[in-house]
Amino acid sequence: MSRITYVFKRIGKMDFARMKDTAAMLHKKTGKPTFWLLADMGKCALKYNAGYMDYKIAEMYRLNDAQRRTVITRGISNDIVRRMNDKAYWHFFDDKTQFNTAFSKWVQRDWIKSDDTLTQEALQAFLKDKDQMIYKPLEGSSGQGIAKYQKKDWKNIGVFREQLLEAGPGILEEVVIQHPEMARMCPTSVNTVRIATLLGDKQEGIVYAFLRIGNGRVMDNVDCGGMAARVDLASGTLLTVGADKQGNTYEKHPITGTPIIGFHIPFFEEAKQMCLEAMRVVPQVRFVAWDVAITADGPRFIEGNSFPSHAVPQFAAHYPDGIGILPEFKKFIDL
What pTM value is reported for the model? Predict the structure, then answer.
């Protein structure tokens, strides 16, 4: 593709309305002229394959060109996924029943598929002696459609089954009880460690890890109001403040008051080893972001992502010197 063709293709994909709204918001935040912000946003789209959310979240308006080249933008992230992950094998991660089956060694919880083949009798037998359950859509991301149920909710099993069927195909699984130390950070959600592995051409292993922290809701996902902090791969200790998608930063958890920087994740070494072993189960999917819960008995998989979100690894608060995470990827693959 010629440079001119590429430029016109990128311009055609730009969402100018969203860009204008983002520039207006950043003008209020930074005082920079809206026209300058729009022009700079367009430059970053063409030169660094950055979307308007990349520009906002990574605070590219405050970075020089050398720093901007270290940001993992949407375009770069999508290219890594296309190169590393054979789409014919995504179903092992995108379908939650297939994930739980393929990685059952590390999931270690009861679950049942919830669709029109689920009988009232089977559901009744599955729920026997259980106190709370989580429903998840069969496919989906960003915590959308997830619901938590208590024993009182299935007092009438027929009504409960109909409620599940109305929610669409999914899985019903046991609630993960997190380690008391993880609950000390935020008790309302299971605070998962996102660990990204890469079977690269230069190197194989873990690229990054972030602790995703809830902020009062059932989910820890940043699209559901949660925050994230970067984890030191050697020690399992949080290196940075918590940051959310709106640009807010937290030295302490706003609800529990637990300090974020310096917080140590239990069983982190075991979590790393689990991911390093699991990354070879489906080697055709070479770049995976694993969501790991830490329980009192060790790490457990919640899910694996064959198309990892690049939002968390580019939050500006995680890179106070302006040098982003792309150099870490370059240790594994050529970019």
Answer: 0.90
